[in-house]
Specification:
This protein is α+β, with helices and mostly antiparallel strands and 186 residues long. The chain has a domain of 101 residues. The protein contains six helices and four strands, in the order ββααββαααα. Strands 1-2 form a two-stranded antiparallel ribbon. The chain is elongated. The relative contact order is 0.12.
């Protein structure tokens, strides 16, 4: 089966031939590669301990780490897709009322409206300040140690197979009875 060629024009208007296979490779490389989410449990604990950034001082509610989902190209925050959580450095502390359950909670209305119109605050500045104060920026620069893979022990093929023993805590019930579908003579 031969390649099917098409004529394409580049930006200068020159014609060139491009096979469907090459076209597929070019389009495939332009897709966005999802990078793994950067997690930092120490930073999340710091954000939860810092309190809600929207509540007035003196109000002590349970604080959750709220991830900022919308993008800001100016500071390098990529857009977050469906069923995708942003890196932990893009978090601010919000109480459950302002995060999830309130009438005008972050997840019930658009995030831009929640932060800029209703509360008049820039969540990226808050998240950057918390990231530096928690030491997350310094931890991100440290080299990561790779985990050694577990050594898999080969099974001895000549060894006798283990018998499955019933657990002494498992209740012994009555024996299973046939439902009358015995095999007949073959």
């Amino acid at each position: 089966m031969g390649d099917v060629h098409r004529d394409e024009r580049d930006k200068s208007g020159q014609k060139f031939s491009l096979s469907k296979l090459d076209k597929f490779r070019v389009d495939d490389m332009t897709l966005r590669q999802r990078t793994p989410r950067q997690r930092d449990d120490v930073h999340l604990a710091f954000v939860r301990a810092s309190g809600c950034v929207v509540c007035p001082k003196g109000v002590n509610r349970h604080t959750e780490a709220a991830h900022i989902r919308f993008a800001c190209i100016a500071i390098g925050k990529p857009a977050t897709g469906m069923q995708e959580k942003p890196d932990d450095k893009w978090t601010v502390g919000l109480c459950d009322y302002h995060h999830r359950t309130g009438i005008l909670a972050q997840h019930k209305i658009s995030e831009e409206r929640f932060w800029f119109e209703i509360h008049g605050r820039n969540p990226f500045e808050i998240a950057a300040r918390l990231w530096i104060e928690s030491g997350g920026a310094a931890r991100a620069l440290e080299p990561k140690t790779a985990k050694r893979p577990k050594k898999i022990k080969a099974r001895d093929r000549d060894a006798p197979k283990r018998k499955i023993r019933s657990s002494p805590n498992f209740p012994q019930g009555r024996k299973l009875q046939s439902r009358g579908f015995e095999k007949g003579p073959a």
